[in-house]
């Protein structure tokens, strides 16, 4: 009987600990969602794992990025225990999310901590180019992003910029050496994509650089 009560006492302690722990994790993700950086810091000091996933299996760093919680995302990216090379269920890395959301400070920290600038398939540069985030594109290129990276269907960052982004994004990529003559699996070039979406200024840049590119190639 004595053993029974002792075992029961341990069980209650365990249940109480588990409930408190669950509550802490709920508080953690609530604080992340609302970008309450001091609350997140407090919970990290209490021992919350910065790599903890939410109920959908998304790591805390990605939750912060998706929520637009920039201060918290920077904090988590700087945390020594945080794994910066993590992906969401769509195989989008933390750096890709920072790139498309133009979270420059977070991206800088992620790169400093070793996040992959180049990866197979879609890359952070594709994402930054899609939105035309010039400073983000420069950051990635300065850190050796492959300018003609190809997605699974052969789409390059230049093609994405040509269809979706302002002309300055197209101009930047061309000036940095992007190949305007490449075509994706649908046989479409960046110029084709600019014309398809009536991006006249982008099409102008692409025509000019394509001619210059072909002249240079012919002379080599």
**Helical element count?**
12
Series of secondary-structure elements, N-terminal to C-terminal: HHHHHHHHHHHH
**Unreliable spans:** 1-6, 8-20
Radius of gyration: 23 Å
Helix and strand content put the structural class at: mainly alpha
Number of strands: 0
Major beta sheet, specifics? none
Level-2 CATH architecture of the largest domain = Alpha Horseshoe
For CATH, the homologous superfamily of the largest domain is named as Ankyrin repeat-containing domain
Question: Could you estimate the helical fraction of the residues in percent?
Answer: 55-70%
Strand content: under 5%
Topology:
Layout: H1 2-33, H2 37-45, H3 60-66, H4 70-78, H5 94-100, H6 104-112, H7 124-131, H8 134-142, H9 157-164, H10 167-175, H11 190-196, H12 200-219
Descriptive report:
- The chain is mostly helical and 220 residues long.
- It folds into two domains: 1-88, Alpha Horseshoe (Serine Threonine Protein Phosphatase 5, Tetratricopeptide repeat), CATH 1.25.40; 117-219, Ankyrin repeat-containing domain (Serine Threonine Protein Phosphatase 5, Tetratricopeptide repeat, Alpha Horseshoe), CATH 1.25.40.
- Helices cover 61% and strands 0% of the residues.
- It is built from twelve helices and no strands.
- The chain has helices at residues 2-33, 37-45, 60-66, 70-78, 94-100, 104-112, 124-131, 134-142, 157-164, 167-175, 190-196, 200-219.
- Helix 1 (2-33) runs antiparallel to helix 2 (37-45) and helix 11 (190-196) packs antiparallel against helix 12.
- The longest helix is centred in the N-terminal third of the chain and has 32 residues, at 2-33.
- It is elongated, with a radius of gyration of 23 Å.
- Residues 1-6 and 8-20 have low confidence and may be disordered.
């Amino acid at each position: 009987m004595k053993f029974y009560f002792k075992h029961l006492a341990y069980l209650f302690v365990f249940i109480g600990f588990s409930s408190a722990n669950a509550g802490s994790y709920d508080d953690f993700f609530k604080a992340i969602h609302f970008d309450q950086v001091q609350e997140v810091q407090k919970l990290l000091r209490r021992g919350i794992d910065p790599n903890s996933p939410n109920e959908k299996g998304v790591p805390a760093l990605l939750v912060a990025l998706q929520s637009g919680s920039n201060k918290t995302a920077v904090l988590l990216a700087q945390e020594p225990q945080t794994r910066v090379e993590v992906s969401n269920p769509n195989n989008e890395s933390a750096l890709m999310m920072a790139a498309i959301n133009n979270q420059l400070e977070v991206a800088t920290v992620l790169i400093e901590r070793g996040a992959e600038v180049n990866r197979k398939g879609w890359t952070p540069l594709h994402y930054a180019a899609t939105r035309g985030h010039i400073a983000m594109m420069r950051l990635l290129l300065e850190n050796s992003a492959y300018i003609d990276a190809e997605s699974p269907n052969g789409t390059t960052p230049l093609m994405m910029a040509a269809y979706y982004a302002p002309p300055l994004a197209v101009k930047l990529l061309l000036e940095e050496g992007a190949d305007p003559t490449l075509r994706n699996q649908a046989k479409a070039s960046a110029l084709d994509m600019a014309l398809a979406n009536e991006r006249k200024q982008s099409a102008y840049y692409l025509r000019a650089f394509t001619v210059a590119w072909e002249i240079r190639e012919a002379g080599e």
